[in-house]
Amino acid sequence: MNVNELKHKGLKKWVDEAVALMTPDSVEVCDGSQTEYNHMIMVNIAAGLATPLNAGKLPGCVLFRSDPSDVARVEDRTFIASEKESDAGPTNHWTAPADLKQTMSSLYKGCMKGRTMYVIPFSMGPVGSDIAKIGVEITDSAYVVANMHIMTRVGTKVLDVLGQDGFFVPCYHSVGKPLAEGQKDSGVWPCASMDKKYISHFPETREIWSYGSGYGGNALLGKKCLALRIASVLARDEGWLAEHMLILKLTNPKGEVKYVTGAFPSACGKTNLAMLIPTLPGWKVETVGDDIAWMKFGKDGRLYAINPEAGFFGVAPGTNYDSNKNAMEACKKNSIFTNCGLTEDGDIWWEMIGQGAAGQEVIDWKGNLRPSPLKDKSLKGQEIAHPNARFTAPARQCPCIADEWDDPAGVPISAFLFGGRRPKTIPLVNQAKSWVHGVFMGSIVGSEVTAAVISDQVGQVRRDPFAMLPFCGYHMGDYFQHWLNIGKKSDPEKLPKIFFVNWFRKNAEGKFIWPGYGENSRVLAWIFDRCNGVTDNAVDTPIGFLPTISAIARPDGVSEADMKEILNVDIEGWKAEIADVRKNHYPKFGDKLPKELYTELDAIEERLNKA
Predict the structure, then answer these.
(1) 417 in Cβ contact with 261 (< 8 Å)
(2) Pick the catalytic residue: 30, 171, 225, 268?
(3) Which domain holds residue 605?
């Protein structure tokens, strides 16, 4: 489609202004077709940026290697530019929006010289869903276009829904590397230096401006930028929830179905849970989403969730057929790999992939030849695949994808799960006594530091409330209040029940007590029953409702004594937990920390003192 064919006057004006500022050699409006996707891949191959993989093993797959300076989110270059600094809060990087736009506009001037500007209309969520939102990303990266094809719904059908005056989130993106006449990328990943990288969010005007990075969520602006940072502000203002949560479908042996979401900090098994293969006979787990959930109230008063994404942007190292068979199957074709190793026979390789590499040598993520055989674990800094190496795979290819994953109406949520990596204190599972208690549980989510570079951090809990700390587009104290407000305006009988899970308890020898992975289905079965109104499978404790010792079917290797250990209320440990929250965590949010959470903190402490 030609730019002049755009029917939305506001969109056309915005694109015209971008063209005048960025001066690309040409402009293409993306139609979302397979032909277009194939063309983007060929453009990258021709530029020396993409390597086709072995079509016999990985049909339709390619490998990219980014610049070593452009391998992950850059938190210190990510900004929430609200009009008031106090609205951004202490956990976000704030810059005055006018100053930031002036700085970035100077960088954008002429930034696409020698390149094509791609205009990507995309829908976060099924096209036309009442829960979905539309964004339009302008980019000079064919890599971004190809990834957005997989991660979102792109093209003409989105423009049809947008119409002539519909709402969209405008997203600027440039790799920040204009080309002189006759200059080519010639196999060198295009990006700017670290001090010129900006990932900026303007909450009041619902804008995203990104410059200098071509990697991941820095460049695929539908992901964390729109789906969480901007969407969290929209959700606050419009009365819904935009959360860093998986969505899974649980079916019990009777054929009854419930949908569950879960928020977990990184390295806590979130994707593995979303794609879990249950060990419990007769139970079935299916994936609706692995990373983000948008939830709005239906006419029946229940929360309905969609997965706003259309693909998986998964961390490759550590993913294998034992840890996540479904993820491995999902990325076997039509997928994009970034910063993985390349074997002699054109296959990919990463640490803990669970298989050797064909041939005598492998090319690492920096393009260097390395000898084979390879080890499952490499020394830090010497990895074959970058620790944040990724695969981008269409969700429809996942063997356990639920039929409802693309339903515009969403799925009704029965439970929220929160969790972290906690070797002690936190039990295997406990249920909140109330909505406010559940919000308290979400607000103290964290993982214990077990191998920190700074030795005095070992054993401390690094808090990541609701697993949203890097992704909330406004003050976290106001975010907690929004969750409390959702509870106040809703029928408590129709709200999801809230649970806290911890697969990572260790014994005195430092070994995991619970086997995790597929065995976590046993905990999900208990949660299912609690949502189904079963009451004789739990005991009331100072920290919430815990399963009775016999309520969860024990897997092989887990004794009754083990169950007593991981379902025990560690009174002294919890007193220390409460003290840490009171002294080190809640004060960070100042006077915006809702009083209800301090009241809940006092109530739990009082119950612990009486126990």
Answers:
(1) yes
(2) 268
(3) 243-309+403-610
